[in-house]
What we know:
This protein is 11% helix and 50% strand. By secondary structure, the chain is mainly beta.
Amino acid sequence: MTRYISKIILSWILMTGLCGGLGIGYAEEKEDPNIIKEVMMKKMTGEVAGISQNFISILYGQDEKTSYEMAFDIDKDVKIENKEDLKQINIGNIVAVSYEETTEKLKDDKEGKIKVKNRTVKRIVFIKEREGGF
Length: 134
């Protein structure tokens, strides 16, 4: 009897989405009328600092004290150019990425503060292997 009640409670929790914080269930995000959301396509060229099936990090500049790096999600339908697939792109390679950047700002913000919500790579163009090696 206790096992049956536990199954009913678990089913109710899963159906109502109370486990949203655990990645179980679904909670619909409502649009806030006070927020301006903008999606733009951008491009960047640089050296691959890290890469996996769904993530890429690009070093795009450096000075005496600082290296500038940006991290991106990779779209599941990413287009790869000059290589057969993503697995052939390695740390140190030079690539150009085209990515979709989603930003938000408050409508009445006088300072114009912009919050980047997401950057997703849609296209990766392999340019060349790293010169010199490690």
